[in-house]
Amino acid sequence: MALFIHPLFVIVEFILNLLWFIVMLNVVMSWLLSFGIINMRNDLVRMIWNSIESLLEPMLAPLRRILPSFGGLDFSPLVLLLAIYFITMELGALEFALYRSIGA
Description:
By secondary structure, the protein is mainly alpha-helical. The protein is 81% helix and 0% strand. Helix 2 packs across helix 3. The longest helix has 33 residues, at 2-34.
């Protein structure tokens, strides 16, 4: 059982870390777009932005509906990052508890 659980935890943690990186890339790109450092007329920028938005919008849209309006500030990526961090911590604790219970 332990031989199967550890790789599963590693894969889930890798996916969560990748998601964290994509959210951070989205935040940084939105700042760069807002300040005019990069623009959407560039095909590569537009392609990257559309890809990131299509990946994150299903996760951010429900958070945007729940969170109150803060004017021009969007705190939904921050809430998503906190959720990713919480899930990662809980997976680590669960993995530790499973290994401790089976004595591996």
